Amino acid sequence: MQGRVGRGYGIWETLVALTCCAIPVVIATGRLLQIDTTCKSTCCNSTAAEIQRQVDRFQDQFKHLPQRDLADLHRLGYLPTGVPVCPEDGVRYELRGKTVACPLHQGDARAGI
Asked: What is the pLDDT of residue 112?
């Protein structure tokens, strides 16, 4: 006696199964991209706030503000590893008046960017 041979899955069953698997992947990818952007923005805020603290220390010690490009902070050891850049696109922070700002976010450290 021979066993019964099944016909397998048809094209429609396969397409439905792939669609059901793809929907959660698309949703998860969108959420991960949103989380990534939020993380980079939070990191940018924190970095700008730290640079602002160093600008304030510099001003207290020397009674004037550093250069707009913040190179004085690096040269004098306030930012020993160099002037940080925005994690979102690599733009350097700059001094606008008395406030550190991220050119990408057009905000400042005192306002929380």
From this structure: 45
Q: How big, in percent rounded to 5, are the helix, strand and coil portions of the chain?
A: 50, 10, 40
Does the pTM surpass 0.85? The reply is: no
Residues 100, 108 contacting (CB under 8 angstroms): yes
CA distances (Å), 38 to each of 9, 24, 34, 105, in order? Answer: 43, 21, 6, 13
Mean pLDDT of all residues in 80-90: 89
What percent of the chain is modeled with pLDDT above 90? 42
DSSP string covering 53-79 = HHHHHHHHHHSSPPPTT-HHHHHTTSS
HSE-CB for 96 with a 13 A CA cutoff: 14
As given in the structure block, the two tokens for residue 57 are 């220390």
Q: Are 40 and 87 in contact (CB under 8 A)?
A: yes
